[in-house]
Amino acid sequence: MDITPATAATPPPLPGGSQPAPAEQSKAAARAGDRIFLALSRGSGILLLVIMAAIAVFLTVRAASALSHNEGNFFTTFEWNANANPPVFGIAVLAFGTIVSSLIAMLIAVPVAIGIALFISHYAPRKLAAPLSYVIDLLAAVPSIVYGLWGALFLVPHLTGLYGWLNDYLGWTGIFAYHDGAARSLFTIGILLAIMILPIVTSVSREVFLQAPKMHEEAALALGATRWEVIRMSVLPFGRSGIISASMLGLGRALGETMAVATVLSPSFEIGKSLLDPGGGTFAQNIASSFKESGEIGKDALIASGLVLFVLTLLVNGAARMIIARRKEYTA
Amino acid sequence: MSGVTMDRPLPAGDAPGPGYTLRQPRLPRWTPAALAAAAAAVGIGIGVGAGLSSHIQWGLIAGLLFVVGMYALAARVEGRRQAKDRLATSLVWVCFLLAVVPLVSLVWETVSRGSKVLDGTFLSHSMAGVLTIQPGGGVYHAIIGTLEQVGIATAIAAPIGLLTAVYLVEYGRGRLAKAVTFFVDVMTGIPSIVAGLFILSFWILMLDFGYSGFAGAMALSILMMPVVVRSTEEMLKLVPNELREASLALGVPKWRTILKVVLPTAIGGIATGVMLSVARIAGESAPVVLLVFGSQVINNDPFDGAQSSLPYYIYEQWAAGNAASYDRAWGAALVLIAFVMILNLVARGIARWKAPKAGR
User: Fold this and answer.
1) Are A112 and B98 inside 8 Å of each other by CB?
2) How many separate domains does chain A show?
3) What ipTM goes with this model?
4) Are residues A254 and A304 in the same domain?
5) Number of domains chain B is built from
6) Which residues lie in coiled coils (chain B) (predicted)?
7) Does residue A77 belong to any structural domain of this protein?
8) Is the pLDDT of residue B92 over 80?
9) Cβ–Cβ of B95/A7 closer than 8 Å?
10) Is there a contact between B186 and A306 if contact means CB atoms under 8 Å apart?
11) pLDDT at residue A10 in the model
């Protein structure tokens, strides 16, 4: 900004500047223009911050009004009768379902995503690598409701065989017990969420793997290491923090995923021992499915559960970003 | 295990040689392919033989056979370290196939089931007067809703996102810029349902406006802003500093430099980013379910009254739960996926077409 007064004294005819105004006048116009432009762009930056603050404030206000009517304990009650009189609701089941299904998704998605990222960065033929990462990105472009439709009408019927098998061999653990019925359970949600968070985990870890120092890899190769030993000794240690933050970004996505879960899960307000039997619920799913039947207090109660989800994802994402930022400083 | 015993005779030709050669015994190059074929055959054989109904199980058996077989084979012929390398390679390949299978299956199901109902009538009619159990009806009202909502959201989010990115790259110093950068990152991770709840509490419950397409569009714009900021920021950072310096040295004020030099240089990348974010919010269903209320008839006015949208329509038809409505849901899913994919392809096309110019 400060360059303008110094250079405007010798005005060369600019191709862009149409009116040949006196130097004084154009200087004033430039200053006004600069000021307006700066105000506009700074203003929209501030607007973003205001929106973030407004989200927190408005959700908190509505949530507080719901909690003041609540007859149950918000954190430990195992039911959701927010429209009853008096309203009784608690998030215990939702928190359990959200966390369990997201963790299942992580357990499935992270190893697979690391594998794919390694495949693209180190194993695939050079010509294939770019189209392959494009295909993985396409997975991210599919709308979540379409995943939900596919999950409910294709994946669920195809999983009953697998679940029966799991029940036969691992049913004694209780966790993998499966009684007949559609496989619209937390475990199915976990599988579906795993597919949905695969692209983001893959693309972040791929970036990190590509940044691994070439010299280390070549040194390892020169010592006669196999390709796997190169990856284990020089790529994975370098990318560890990247993998952690990538999985946390994925976790953030999985926690907040709504429509795919709402479409596939058959919800119930109890915590069952088995992951394969239908039942359970997640924050986002509960909001989407019980919204239409909710009255004033019911909606506020849903907003209260949404606030918990908001805080949860904020913490997870913030932590992930913090790790990425610290790593950037470290490498730079 | 049977896959291993079947293939055992293959590499037996060059058994571990005498110690004086430097070359370790290697499996022939075609071994993985042959073993994969054998594993697939055995997997299908076991599947058919044992009467396993689920094809997922067939795949799992074949995959397991391949990985174990490759390891055993390499350990026998090439030694432990090479075997571990082979194991890692096959695991990485299996991972990749695991990711491709759902994508292919999803696209295949959508196209094959959706194309049954997709025709001119489906695209040009609403659901007015059609019972959910009847076949017929269409998505016209939902397409109108989606286009209007996404259009309004873009009109709100694109300028704000662009200006924010300009601020961060061209002006941003100090604490405010750092805070904006951090919260843009955090905002990227906001669950879409939370954005919907925010507009619900603010616009509908507090200010007492009705459910409308515009309410949905506002929620969508919240989701779109951080994406636009991020991608625009990346593009502006790529503009060479020499261009800015040359323009400033000629006495051009900073704002004109940004408008006439920086933005035009990066315009291809910016357009790509905006289109990708449009593609992202077009498929966003959670806030729409909360805010537009859904409608069976055509409503061209996004500011007044309930509207529908493609994601909402899919959800609604799925929830109706009968054969005719499932068909419509798949049809709408096909329309939505086509829309999103076309946006994606065009965006990448622009990126490629504009790329050399930006680099010059």
Assistant:
1) yes
2) 2
3) 0.81
4) yes
5) 2
6) none
7) no
8) yes
9) no
10) no
11) 42
